[in-house]
Amino acid sequence: MKKEKLPIGIFDSGVGGLTVFKEVAGLLPHEDIIYLGDTARVPYGARSPQTIIKYSQDITSFLLRQGIKLLVVACNTSSAVSLPSLKKANDIPIIGVIEPGARRAAEMTQNKRVGVIGTEGTVKSRAYEQAIQGIDQRIKVVSRACPLFVPLAEEGWVENEVARLTAQSYLRPLCEEAIDTLVLGCTHYPLLEGIIREIMGDGVCLVNSAQETAKEVQRVLEEEKLTAPGKKNESYTFYVTDNAERFIRVGERFLGRKLRSVKEIS
Question: Both 83 and 109 in a single domain?
């Protein structure tokens, strides 16, 4: 089979990467996609770097055996820790979620003050801060961990009073930092974008890393001449490492569509 006809591979530690899947599928509807959620070992944030790298290498090897042409690491923790080793060990294009979001934030900010919200693991890694300041050292980056956003998104509590009060508690300190750009540095957070925007106000631009990652996928496919030819009925395959029923239930909430062809693997 010609390379351009091969599928795109996407993996995450769980369901959060489905926001990246959704953006890629929406921007590139003619591409086949294979998604793997490592639901047996979620979350990655509490794991050691060595363990995260091993998990990421295992998953990459599995997806390569399925015959993918490009890999998206749709997990912020894995992007921060394992991306260099994955790129070094493999000869297909590999894209993480941190660099695209950081690049967009650096472009958007006018006052050189950028906020980043993410899980405790992502914030502790300082990956976004380093990526943004690697582009422009003049930018001050203020990071804030928002761990309760993940269970809220998975429960579908994204517009109720519990979500609003939680968001106010997390985001009020960022409002006082005079930031003009805020990076949603976790794949779950786009589901809470409405409340985040409401609290931060119109003067703060939100950067959705999932959207920016999809644009990067499109750019790389075009640059490498790997874009699938013509229009056709897309083929999506989903793998999980545990509890397919829960993945389907939460995943359908994330995507707003039925999930078919979900396979549980060891």
Answer: no
- SS3 label, residue 155: helix
Q: Would residue 186 show up in a list of annotated catalytic residues for this protein?
A: yes
Considering the domain architecture, whether residues 110 and 66 belong to the same structural domain is answered as no
Q: Which of the listed residues 183, 209, 235 is the one where a domain comes to its end? A: 209
Question: For residue 76, what are the contacts with CB-CB under 8 A and spacing of at least 6?
Answer: 97, 98, 118, 119, 121, 122, 127, 185, 186, 187, 209
pLDDT in tens, 81-105: 899 999 999 999 999 999 999 999 9
- Average of per-residue pLDDT across 28-45: 92
pTM above 0.85, yes or no: yes
Task: Name the nearest CA neighbour of 127 among 80, 79, 77.
Answer: 80
Structural domain including 108 reads 98-209
Contacts (Cβ under 8 Å, ≥6 apart) of 249: none
Active site residue 75: yes
Same domain, 248 and 174: no
Catalytic choice (146, 175, 186, 205): 186
pLDDT band at 211 (very low <50, low <70, confident <90, very high): very high
